[in-house]
Amino acid sequence: MKTMKKIAAGALVVSAGMGFLTQSAWALLPIEHWTQPSGAQVWLVQSPGIPMVDVQMDFDAGSRRDPQGQAGLAAAVAMMASKGIKAAGDAPALDENALGQAWADLGASFGASAGRDSFTFGLRTLTVPNLQQKAVALAARQMAAPSWPDAVWQRDRERWSASIKESDTRPGTIASKAFRKDVFGNSPYGYQTTVDSLSKIDVSAMQAFHKELIKACRAKVSVVGAVSREQADAMVKQLLGPLQATNGNDCAPLPAVAKVQDLKEAKVESIPFESAQAQVLIGQPGIARNNPDFLAVMVGNHILGGGGFTSRLMEEVREKRGLTYGVSSDFSPGLDRGAFVISLQTRPDQAAEALKVSQDVLRKFIAEGPTEKELKAAKDNLVGGFALRIDSNRKLLGNVSNIAWNGLPLDYLEHWTDRVQALTTKDVKDAMQRMVQPERMVTITLGAKP
């Protein structure tokens, strides 16, 4: 017997035995987009099923905007955003404990995070009028007027530094840091937070970063929930109003960020380390998220090493030869080219063999591309799982913010499955060849033994 239901994003899922069919019906929940007088841009999906709203506000203030020598500044600003807020009118100042209790009392959540490209504030609240109004007002204060308590920063910086020191003793961290340094060089994507870089960050640096980069006119706001366009517009204005008042609204173009450069030659680094497992990393700069090859590379990577036990790397390195419990490939596109990487762990005496097999699999795949059978299996897996990417408001918010941040068309999700299905083996091979040059790879082995 078949059962049908509409999921949050308006896709129709038809279950039948062990399989399911996904039919795009995105028009049921269209994405609306507009620009406010402040310059803030808004993307909205009205999802009235649950009396809740999720809001994500993104700014071009991720770690790639950290000043050289102050890696970790964006992350520090995000961390300190929850450590207290200044008084505003009749509302008293709140320290970190009182602020946390205020959010608990509202049954809402609000926080900040800093990624590689973007600085993000996220709000989740019920749309019960009194609760929503209070949550939005508190979020607006927290964005615009952190109190920047120096004693708290000194405490948390010590904890952070201790965590870095401990992490730097782990083989995975040592290998990953060496890999990033060799792949990205002096590009901001290669910046790595250290004890020394944290020592150069103080409250005045955080205040300056916040004032310069966290401005209403720079905001890209994604909203998903039980609100109308009028309600969403008013809510975003309320959220960003105090920020506009404190940080101004002068949005001159930001300085260009140094681009990730192609590798000129192969780089091989073997790091001595006594460990039960050797670390192996192979990779190079990949592609940017707005690259037209993105979907073809996504499918190609799924076949090569991103598809779990069905991938070529798992078949050749684990299943046939038993050289590792797991091997995978991944690529991390952003505003610029994140890294493409193959990673595995193996016994130290098997590292050389595991590396060679992985390199051989990569070269063959890049040279020949996928088979028709592999392509069909990848499409079935990716298209079949599409509904799971949008089956909650939070997941849907992630997809809408991806569209907003990367300048993708509003109907991107509506045509996603069609575009994946239209890819040919030649499309995938050509896209992977444009991204990967096997003769110019960074190769890191840590803890390997003859």
How does this model look, in words?
The structure is a single chain. The chain is α+β, with helices and mostly antiparallel strands. The protein is built from 15 helices and 16 strands. It has helices at 73-80, 96-106, 129-144, 150-167, 171-184, 195-199, 203-213, 229-247, 294-306, 312-319, 351-368, 372-384, 393-406, 416-422, 425-435, and strands at 3-6, 12-16, 19-23, 32-35, 41-46, 52-59, 84-85, 94-95, 109-114, 119-126, 220-225, 267-271, 278-285, 327-331, 339-346, 442-446. It has a six-stranded mixed sheet, sandwiched between helices. Strands 12-16-13-15-14 form a five-stranded mixed sheet, with helices on both faces. β7 (84-85) and β8 form a beta hairpin.
Measured between the Cα atoms of the first and last residue, the distance is 59 Å
Q: In what order do the strands lie side by side in the largest sheet? A: 4-5-11-6-10-9
SSE class: alpha+beta
Share of residues in strands: 15-25%
**Average pLDDT for all residues:** 93
Low-confidence stretches: 1-28
Using only C-alpha atoms, the radius of gyration works out to 24 Å
The portion of residues assigned to helices is: 40-55%
H/I helix tally: 15
Global outline: globular
Counted beta strands: 16
Reported for the largest beta sheet, the result is: 6 strands, mixed
